[in-house]
Amino acid sequence: MSLIALVQEKLKHHPNRFNHILGVKERALELQKIYGGNAAAIETAAILHDLFKYDSITEQTQWIKDDNEVIKYQSVPVAYHAIAAAYYAKDVLNIDDPIVFEAIYYHIWGKVGMRLETMIICVADFCEKNRTFHGAKTVYELSKKDLQQAFILSLEYTIEYLNEGGLTPFYEQLDVLKYYKETPWNY
User: Fold this and answer.
1) What is the pLDDT of residues 150-173, one digit of tens each?
2) Which CATH number covers residue 123?
3) One Pfam family of this protein, by short name (predicted)?
């Protein structure tokens, strides 16, 4: 079974999420053509990044082998779907590629010192063509000119959204934003 077929079957009751995944794949490969990076890893990560999006927290955390990871993200359980998908890709699908693992694991807000492929997945996830929320189109247009600035802007929009909703951004989000605002990045 192809990865697309696997994801389509898993998300058969969530067609909008499946369309989102196809949009992330398309946008990520578009950005790969501009900035480079491993196209196969980018495509794989894009296809699998939201595989566990609609599973329960219990189902998501069963794939996370390190209890410290579960504890670390308990205040932001949205992270579990990403971590679970990364481990599933590695442990079940036998995709033993650190580029794919990192890009899936950190697709929500990236990480300090991330690979190019991870930043591409983060930006593509925020601004794929089906996204209609505030900032998606602006981030997309910027992403074609400056990937790092597009990434920064996507995090700023996300943090603004969380703050407006009375939610506290996770400390990693803030650390990543600070790092990329202060650190020129060569890609």
Assistant:
1) 999 999 999 999 999 998 999 999
2) 1.10.3210.10
3) HD
Tens-digit pLDDT profile for residues 88-122: 999 999 999 999 999 999 999 999 999 999 999 99
* Domain range enclosing 35: 3-182
Nearest 5°: the CA angle 86, 35, 121 is 25
C-alpha radius of gyration, the chain, whole number: 15
Q: How many CA atoms lie within 13 A of 46 on its CB side?
A: 30
Cα–Cα distance list, 80 to 9, 19, 116, 157 (Å)? 20, 21, 22, 21
- The answer to whether residue 155 is domain-embedded is yes
Crossing angle for the helix pair 147-164 and 116-127, to the nearest 10 degrees? 50
Looking at the predicted structure, is the pLDDT value of residue 187 above 70?
A: no
**Residue 111 in domain:** yes
**Model pTM above 0.90:** yes
Domain contains 187: no
In a domain, 17, yes or no: yes
Number of domains composing the chain: 1
Backbone angles phi, psi at 170, to 5 degrees: -70, 145
